[in-house]
Amino acid sequence: MFVKNSRYFGLPTTTARDGADRDVAAVKLRALPVTMGDTYVVKNHDRLDVMAEERYGDATRYWVVADANTELEVGALTATAQRPIRVPPR
Q: Could you tell me the CA-to-CA distances from 28 to 24, 74, 87 in Å, in that order?
């Protein structure tokens, strides 16, 4: 269902109903581990995929940074300049 480098790969799924009353597959919530990392202060126009490419050599690993923070919406992590976020080591 998900590619191997997805944070959802291998997680249990469930069936849910969408707004059109159709069955859709959904990933069950997963517990996020406590993650150590460096504090990074967001600058204007920062993007998680660019940060992941620079740090991990793979832009699709943006979710590693997202998981290290408690924000529910990934885009909100870089929406505000001067916000400190956690960036895990390689």
A: 12, 18, 25
Residues 20 and 50 in one domain: no
Q: Does residue 76 contact residue 65 with C-beta atoms inside 8 Å?
A: no
Number of domains the chain contains? 2
| Domain shared by 18 and 55, yes or no | no
Cβ count near 57 (within 10 Å) = 9
H-helix or E-strand containing 84? strand 84-87
pLDDT at residue 17, as a whole number: 87
* pTM for this model (two decimals): 0.66
Question: Containing domain of residue 4, as a range?
Answer: 1-31
Lowest mean pLDDT among 22-31, 38-47, 73-82: 22-31
